[in-house]
Write a structure and sequence with these properties.
about 90 residues; mainly alpha
């Protein structure tokens, strides 16, 4: 193998490593943080899902109450109109 070719290949390899480290920096993990266990990730996801579910339930209940309130208001107006008609008749 030609030494100039080997040297060029080595330079190219070093350049690619530098570019790779720039594009994809290695994350430094402190000894305190360590890898997270799959169970703790599952627990966190369940908590987030339950919080989302609770918000959705509160919103649905509020919307239902608003619909029922508007229906009740409409019914009261209908009764009031009927009573008014009876008075004028």
């Amino acid at each position: 193998m030609d030494p100039s070719i080997a040297e060029a290949a080595e330079r190219q390899t070093r350049a690619m490593r530098v570019l790779s480290l720039r594009a994809f920096p290695e994350l430094e993990v402190s000894s305190e943080e360590g890898p997270t266990s799959i169970d703790s990730v599952r627990v966190q996801r369940r908590r987030e899902a339950e919080a989302t579910r609770a918000v959705a339930l509160r919103r649905a209940r509020a919307e239902r109450a608003a619909r029922q309130g508007s229906t009740a208001t409409g019914q009261l107006r209908g009764v009031a109109a009927a009573v008014e008609l009876e008075r004028t008749a």
